[in-house]
Structure formats: structure tokens, C-alpha cells
Design goal:
Helix content is 68%, strand content 0%. It has 7 helices and no strands. The longest helix has 21 residues. The radius of gyration is 17 Å and the shape is globular. The N and C termini lie close together (9 Å).
Length: 146
């Protein structure tokens, strides 16, 4: 999921980045719009679950896929709520970094420790695939990096 977000941002044209910044500014500056964003993010749950199901060759009603999709949607809402009032220079970039960090936290198994703590101790707590235990047992899509 992190790679998909990064890919969308990295492949956007300068015009698309400018339009995205304008949309983000509008969504953050109009209280009625800002209040509706979490609901719109949550509405993406079926699409995200169906996409994961197709990619992993599993049924869309698989509870594990629904759990991962719901957690990812929750991460996106948390990132939005954390950054919703930030309109200072570079806010879009900071929001993307916050979202990436939150998705990394989800990938790590939701350890309550800080990102710095996870990085410092990752050598002693990772499985053979480099993923903190027990999330190393979660399926990943072919060709995806954790």
C-alpha cells in the first residue's frame, strides 16, 4: 500500500501536484468540507478490499483482507485528522510523509513504540523476511516489497 501511494505521488505531473494542492487547501480551509473527508476516506473500504482480493487471489469477503483494508482506511483517516488544520507551506508533503509513516507503523504490527525505537531494535525483532513478528506471516502480493 505504501508503494502504491508513493507511486501515485511520484508519477504525478507538476500540473497534477498543483491541482492536488489546491484541492487539499480547499478541503482543509472549508469546515463543512473538512468534516466530510473522513467519511469519504471510509467509503473507499470496498474498493480497497476488492483490489487486495484480486491482487492476492483471495475472496473479497476474507476477514483478513477486510481487517487489513479497515486498518489501512483507519490509518488514512488518522493521518488526515492529524494534519487537517495544517495549511502552512509544504503541508501536502508533510501529510504524505505522515501517511507513509502511519502505513509503516501498520506494517510493523502496530507496535506502541515510536518509529525511532522500532528502527533501533529492528534487527533483534524481525523474521527472515525483515518484517517484525508476527506480521511476517501475512501474505504479500507478488513482487511487492514490505
Amino acid at each position: 500500500m505504501r508503494n502504491a501511494v508513493t507511486s501515485l505521488v511520484d508519477t504525478a505531473t507538476a500540473e497534477e501536484h498543483a491541482l492536488n494542492r489546491q484541492c487539499e487547501e480547499l478541503l482543509r480551509s472549508v469546515p463543512d468540507l473538512r468534516a466530510r473527508v473522513p467519511g469519504h476516506i471510509a467509503a473507499a473500504l470496498p474498493l480497497l478490499t476488492e483490489t487486495l482480493a484480486r491482487r492476492l487471489g483471495r475472496p473479497a469477503d476474507d476477514i483478513h483482507l477486510l481487517t487489513v483494508s479497515g486498518a489501512a482506511i483507519g490509518v488514512a483517516i488518522a493521518a488526515w485528522n492529524t494534519a487537517a488544520n495544517d495549511l502552512s507551506e509544504g503541508f501536502v508533503h508533510r501529510h504524505r510523509r505522515l501517511l507513509d509513516d502511519a502505513l509503516a507503523h501498520l506494517e510493523s504490527g502496530l507496535s506502541p513504540r515510536s518509529t525511532e525505537d522500532r528502527t533501533a531494535s529492528s534487527m533483534s525483532e524481525t523474521g527472515v523476511d525483515g518484517c517484525p513478528q508476527p506480521c511476517g506471516n501475512l501474505p504479500s502480493a507478488p513482487g511487492s516489497a514490505r
